[in-house]
């Protein structure tokens, strides 16, 4: 992807985001944000427990083009993926996926969605452990 293709890719996802909206009955709702600018992405996750994989996912958010396009690009690719595969992804992967040349100067914008998705999976794991131990989730 050259620089121009990367810009068009981002703009296209920003203007027509995939997986945007709320899920009716999510296993996890995880808000994420960049304190520096106030931009937000909230991720909703439904897990296929038998396969330890994503059953469905969605986001709502408000913020700069890169942060919102990244959420759309990430969630489109992660539909149906194993949770372990997502846990193994790093921020460098995300930056390459979006077009390093364009987003490398804006790493926090580029990685807000991936960081939030990883936090959502972490919460799902913790909730599972609590349920197995018979504990209530903290309020
Ligand atoms: Fe805030 Fe991009 S400027 S996430
Ligand atoms: Fe503010 Fe990217 S988080 S510029």
TrEMBL record:
**A biological process from GO:** iron-sulfur cluster assembly
Record Pfam families = NifU_N (PF01592)
Q: Which residues form the NIF system FeS cluster assembly NifU N-terminal domain?
A: 10-128
Q: Which SUPFAM superfamilies match?
A: SufE/NifU
Which top-rank group of organisms is this from? Bacteria
Annotated Gene Ontology MF terms?
Answer: iron ion binding; iron-sulfur cluster binding
Q: Which InterPro entries match?
A: NIF_FeS_clus_asmbl_NifU_N
The protein's matches in PANTHER family, at most eight in alphabetical order, are given as: IRON-SULFUR CLUSTER ASSEMBLY ENZYME NIFU HOMOLOG
Q: What is this protein called?
A: SUF system FeS assembly protein, NifU family
């Amino acid at each position: 992807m050259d620089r121009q293709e990367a810009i068009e890719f981002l703009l296209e996802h920003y203007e027509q985001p995939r997986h945007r909206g709320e899920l009716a009955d999510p296993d996890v709702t995880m808000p994420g944000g960049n304190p520096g600018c106030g931009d937000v992405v909230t991720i909703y996750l439904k897990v296929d427990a038998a396969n330890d994989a994503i059953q469905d996912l969605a986001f709502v958010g408000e913020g700069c083009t890169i942060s919102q396009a990244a959420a759309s690009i990430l969630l489109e690719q992660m539909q149906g993926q194993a949770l372990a595969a997502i846990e193994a992804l790093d921020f460098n992967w995300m930056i390459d996926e979006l077009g390093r040349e364009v987003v490398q100067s804006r790493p926090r914008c580029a990685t807000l969605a991936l960081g939030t998705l990883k936090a959502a999976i972490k919460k799902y794991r913790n909730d599972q452990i609590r349920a197995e131990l018979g504990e209530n989730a903290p309020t």
